[in-house]
Design goal:
The structure is a single chain. The protein contains twelve helices and 13 strands. The strands form two sheets. Strands 2, 3, 4, 5, 8, 9, 10, 11, 12 and 13 form a ten-stranded mixed sheet that branches. It has one domain: Rossmann fold. The chain is an alpha/beta fold.
């Protein structure tokens, strides 16, 4: 574990063997024939996803977690702390970011089941504490005093582990991932939303974790740097880099919670329009949670490259017939979300690359 250092650079960075192993295994998975790819849950076989359609955002979230309590508590009991990772892609637009009531719903579930500290931790593209203040996070701890709830700006905390992803030139380059999201003693909860996206079609739990983990400079630092930008090297690389990062983070994941009380369609993830879907989705399999989320948004799952890559790497279940739905039937809550205006360009990752260099050897 390290802290931020302005001397960190690509020239003096020593890539870890673990990062190369993760990269190689995912790339090998992409090369296998489709019929040979394993798409089971993290432990193989079927996965369970809860879908609730209740009276309020907060109650929906808690009810979804209650529906899969048997999946959560055996692991939760083994952990010393809980880390809740919200999505604050914008520090000013509430529709684009995790609502405080979604976090209240998660804490309502945790209170009678967990006695350790709970940290709400985020690495926003902006300054995280501004989002915490604007969205009322600072008042959450008061309503859940039996729990010890605190807020952490991961960028300001500055603790990280290194990881390697592909940049726009298809070179492996280093990025810094928040150490709290790689903590074996933490039960990590993803609190994301249903949103369309301007690069990868849709953003749900996998995207929230993979792009929330890379850090950028703290306010107190002299220079400016942002490892999140490395992920935007190209429409193909972004999908692969999300999957590479998800592969690194997945062993530490606890449960994914998707708030669809108010989803976002159109020009997401920050400038889209409200969709009153009035649902919540929860699963200990993040891939399965996102697959169900894509379904209720009416999106073709083949468009979301990182979702398929994560399934190919064995991170979760993508096949709906192998996902057990607890609660509301998907057909009852599915509504077709309007896609981003750049959808045609976003889908250019599909199919063979035309700029492939000559093959040698």
């Amino acid at each position: 574990m390290n802290t931020h250092d302005h001397r960190f650079s690509r020239r003096n960075f020593l890539w870890t063997a673990a990062a190369f192993t993760a990269s190689a295994s995912l790339l090998r998975a992409q090369e296998r024939p489709a019929e040979s790819i394993q798409t089971g849950g993290p432990s193989g076989g079927r996965s369970v996803v809860a879908v609730t359609n209740g009276a309020s955002r907060r109650k929906n979230i808690c009810a979804a977690l209650l529906a899969i309590e048997d999946q959560i508590t055996p692991v939760l009991k083994t952990k010393k702390r809980v880390v809740i990772k919200p999505n604050i892609v914008s520090t000013s637009n509430q529709l684009a970011s995790t609502h405080a009531d979604a976090l209240h719903g998660i804490l309502d579930f945790l209170e009678p089941r967990f006695k350790g500290p709970v940290v709400i931790a985020e690495s926003s593209a902006g300054y995280t504490m501004e989002g915490f203040d604007n969205f009322g996070y600072s008042r959450i701890a008061v309503d859940h005093k039996p729990l010890s709830v605190s807020l952490v700006d991961l960028n300001e905390e500055g603790k990280y582990q290194t990881h390697a992803i592909l940049n726009g030139d298809l070179h492996l380059v280093p990025v810094r991932l928040a150490a709290r999201l790689l903590d074996p003693e933490a039960f990590i909860i993803c609190s994301a939303m249903l949103k369309t996206h301007n690069t990868v079609v849709a953003t749900l739990s996998l995207k929230n974790m993979a792009l929330g983990a890379p850090l950028h400079n703290a306010r107190k630092e002299g220079g400016r740097w942002n490892d999140k930008r490395v992920y935007h090297g190209g429409v193909r690389q972004t999908h692969v880099d999300i999957a590479l990062t998800a592969q690194r983070l997945q062993p530490f994941w606890g449960v994914a919670v998707l708030d669809g009380w108010e989803g976002m369609e159109g020009n997401g993830p920050t400038e889209g329009s409200l969709v009153p879907s009035r649902i919540a989705i929860a699963s200990t399999d993040y891939v399965a949670a996102d697959r169900v989320g894509i379904e209720v948004m009416g999106i073709n799952p083949e468009w979301v490259g990182y979702l398929g890559f994560c399934a190919r790497a064995g991170l979760g279940q993508i096949n709906l017939p192998n996902i057990d739905i607890r609660g509301t039937k998907l057909a009852e809550v599915t509504r077709k979300y309007r896609m981003h205006g750049d959808l045609e360009r976003e889908l250019r990752w599909i199919g063979p690359m035309k700029e492939i260099p000559e093959k040698l050897g």
